[in-house]
Amino acid sequence: SELTDKGYVLFFQAILIAEFAKNLKVKAISHGSTGAGNDQVRFDLAFQILCPDKIIVTPIRDMKLSRKEEVFFLKSKGVKISWKKAKYSINKGIWGTSIGGEETLKSSTSLPEKAYPTKLSEYYKKIIELKFKKGELFSVNNIKDLQINNIIKLEKISSKFAIGRDLHVGDTILGIKGRVGFEASAALLIIKAHKLLEKHILTKWQIYCKEQLSTWYGNLLHEAQYLDPIMRDIECFFKNTQKRVSGKVKILLNPYRFELIGIESNFDMMKSKIAKYGEINNEWTSDEVKGFIKIFGNQMKIYHNIKKYD
């Protein structure tokens, strides 16, 4: 869901709309969400918290309009577009593109090649380098830029390889299952490269706790809980873990797939001179490690030595 969920974007949009509505001193705010998805919760909740005096107008939800009825209405008003292309609902953003259609409403069918807006156009492998500074994407191929520009730049390079396509199945806030297609090449590469860097730099307990909190944070964000103070608390933890997450990650791009080659970082814990995994150590003797193993297994030994009474 970290690749497909646009919920956080919509909630931020709702926050900005609420502030704009207050500045304009309008009486009502309208949005076009249906009654079957997540976005209605995100919009309504943000408006109820930030501008509770505003009336929320939702014609599509209230009139229970179907997609076919919406298309008929648009045609009746003289809107002329290629309705065949409108067979798929495509939402493109900086982080990726979501794709919905007849196939995603079923559990047994996949999206055809024609449904994806970006086509394979790069057939020869290419190596790219991403540099991170305190957890944020600092440069692409040694060219420094703002994070948002780096994401856009990386997407232009990687999307030509048709990387980052998949179908996501998730739970909606309303309790029903949902299915959506997506292509998010830049997002996938950034997430995987960042995680690899973290594996080399963070301690195992930092990684473990961050993974647990990331799941909670993602679920809360997905379910429109961004304004809950727990989110600020979790963000403080995330920010603190990123103090050392700086370095370079090399990635090999191929049509439809990629490979993480490796990393370079001043904080790489594999550079330690204490020991090399599976080979040599310089900090403990054979007897010391035998003693460690003996103590380390104490609780399991106690458990298995207790007589069974059942």
UniProtKB/TrEMBL annotation:
GO cellular component: cytoplasm
Functional pathway: Amino-acid biosynthesis; L-arginine biosynthesis; L-arginine from L-ornithine and carbamoyl phosphate: step 2/3; Nitrogen metabolism; urea cycle; (N(omega)-L-arginino)succinate from L-aspartate and L-citrulline: step 1/1
Top-level taxon of the source organism: Eukaryota
A Pfam cross-reference name: Arginosuc_syn_C
GO molecular function: argininosuccinate synthase activity; ATP binding
All residue ranges annotated as the Arginosuccinate synthase-like N-terminal domain in the record: 18-79
Alphabetized PANTHER family for the sequence: ARGININOSUCCINATE SYNTHASE (PTHR11587)
Name the UniProt record assigns to this protein: argininosuccinate synthase
Keyword Protein biosynthesis: no
GO biological process: argininosuccinate metabolic process; L-arginine biosynthetic process; urea cycle
Arginosuccinate synthase C-terminal domain residues: 88-303
Catalytic class of the enzyme: ligase
EC number from the UniProt entry: 6.3.4.5
Keyword list, A-Z: Amino-acid biosynthesis, Arginine biosynthesis, ATP-binding, Ligase, Nucleotide-binding
